[in-house]
Amino acid sequence: MKALLNGASIALLLSGTAALANDSVTAAIAKPEQWAIQTGDYANTRYSTLNQINKDNVKDLRVAWTFSTGVLRGHEGSPLVIGDIMYVHTPFPNNVFALDLNNDGKILWRYEPQQDPNVIAVMCCDTVNRGLAYADDTIFLHQADTTLVALDAKTGAVKWSVKTGDPAIGETNTATVMPVKDKLIVGISGGEYGVRGYAAAYNIKDGSLAWKAYSTGPDKEMLVDPEKTTALGKPIGPDSSLKSWEGDQWKIGGGTTWGWYSYDPELNLVYYGTGNPSTWNPSQRPGDNKWSMTIMARDADTGMAKWFYQMTPHDEWDYDGVNEMILTNQQIDGKDRKLLTHFDRNGLGYTLDRETGELLVAKKFDPAVNWTTGVDMDPKSETYGRPAVVAQYSTSQNGEDENTTGVCPAALGSKDQQPAAFSPKTNLFYVPTNHVCMDYEPFRVAYTAGQPYVGATLSMYPAPNSHGGMGNFIAWDNTKGEIKWSLPEQFSVWSGALATAGDVVFYGTLEGYLKAVDAETGKELYKFKTPSGIIGNVMTYEHKGKQYIGILSGVGGWAGIGLAAGLTNPNEGLGAVGGYAALSDYTELGGQLTVFEVPG
């Protein structure tokens, strides 16, 4: 049983079908010595076939070299390595550096965009950016102000740039982009500002728009076919989104797409999730609010939707559905299946057939989750695929101006965007998680373009009657929906994981530790404290025959917004400031890349 796209196997898998994926990206991913895409491969496995650093020698890991980005605030994403050049990005103002790996990391070129700093005021949860993309000798950056830029990979010269959104109405960007064939798949942020979410494809050659698919609204604008686009095996029918909103609320309905994208070249489908509906006050938007909180499968060429699955209808807790979709080929009940695994903010780990959208597994990946008793898995039931909501924790049933207490997970979810990893050697997923609960009080709010459209006051705290910390790093069996082992952490694990053929899994902590654990048992094998809290994603590459591990440190993101933005009111940062107040006792602002090696 193997992951869909891993290391050298990608070339074999794509032989004869190279036209189905961008040739330059396919070739770059097929070289394990490179880190050519933020998610490791098109399947989002974050798995490397490099094994020079392994569970026997990882204890000897040491710092090889470092690089200061010159920028504070939260550093998400990771560098790319193409050939002998490493490409490093920063949070706002989204500077880019090309470093010569043959010359002690000498800066070959830098790109320093001039953005209006007013965009910071409409960025929800820190000024993060989740990284660069590479295709056709070009580096792609989607800036905070929604400027999409193509840079010559050798010189840094701007080939073209195009604006994909409008910060004046709250549209910003924090995500990376994904090159597929001759297009770039691009998303949008701004659900807390009443933005109407969409995914779009821009032509790599010149930046022209190829297609645009909204998350909510009329069928034509959503790029759906009422009779062919399905949800849980049935056609969605005409006006499926419009019928689930009151009046024109869908026009400011959220469903933004600021997470990760994956791609299956054999099916030619792009997968991603949509975010929370606007506003956070559920009483102002009765109905299922389709298609927010939804896993979407779309044709890469046209954007036409093949299937949807809405995980949290009529979201009442801000459980965005944007987390990564990891594609694997595994067996379930003795049958080979093309799977999609997704760890949602709502605390449920989902396994679906990625070809049909059939729901196979939906289980809690944090035992603290209490807002639901589980998902109805009976295909014959009228509520098939829906989670059963516990009335005590329903902010909608409890009503406006009522403080619903003890909801688990908190709005930042049992996992936010920090991506998990999958190892085809263990058939386990390695998941950075949040172990946090909240009090949630919705209130009536009016929409004004470009102004916050939240409508809820939150406070966050560790899950009660547990280990006292706010995070766990877990190993998950996606075919059974079971936790195999769990490592408690004092704070949320806000770093993306990396699994390797050396039987080691890496992740970072908010205090600033890079940790290495045994892929089979979870036993800690190594840790090192970097200068600032880690919310970046661990990556690996090989240069001149030697394997390296790289990580960006720089505390921030939603969990670290108090430190990053200097906030002190416990309810600021949408409730995170109070919940993570103790973080300031362990780390401080920074912006640094740390690269590790094993001596010899």
UniProtKB/TrEMBL annotation:
Keywords: Calcium, Disulfide bond, Metal-binding, Oxidoreductase, PQQ, Signal. Disulfide bonds join C124-C125. InterPro entries: PQQ_b-propeller_rpt, PQQ_MeOH/EtOH_DH, PQQ_rpt_dom, Quinoprotein_ADH-like_sf, Quinoprotein_DH_CS. Binds 1 Ca(2+) ion per subunit. Binds 1 PQQ group per subunit. GO terms for molecular function: alcohol dehydrogenase (cytochrome c(L)) activity; calcium ion binding; pyrroloquinoline quinone binding. This is Methanol dehydrogenase, large subunit. Pyrroloquinoline quinone binds at E76, R130, T174, T256. Residues 35-361, 491-549 form the Pyrrolo-quinoline quinone repeat domain.
